[in-house]
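Spend some time on the protein that follows and explain the fold to me:
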Amino acid sequence: MASDRVIDLLREAYADEIETVMNYQTNAIVLDGVRAEEIKESLKTDIQEELGHAEALGQRLKQLDARPPGSAEFTARQDSLQPPEDSTDVLAVIEGVLEAEEGAIDTYRDLIDAAEEADDPVTEDLAVTLLSDEEAHRTEFRGFQKEYRSE
């Protein structure tokens, strides 16, 4: 049986992934300008991966006789990933993505530790896989950040 901490972290990660999908989608729609196109395309690609993460987390919760949170249980937390007032402020979106990725990385590291303590190698393996994906996203957006800051 999974620990309460593992279940709580799985539910938190699930909600974060769903919120990320919403914010990536919104930012991919609202960003304007030629310079925004590469970021918009990256966000659109990442949406599918983040949805896959949510699906995997939800399935793991189900396997543990728990369930992912529904919208009534959802609390938005990604303030920095809200679409910017200036639709050409691509750097604000990049920095919001980086903050969200850092949060996901922290959550997955906590989940790895909690799963290890609970002797739950399946959840631990899932968290390691998702952590790797989030670190790759962070690396990609750090590159974008360097490019935009140098201009």
The mean pLDDT is 96.
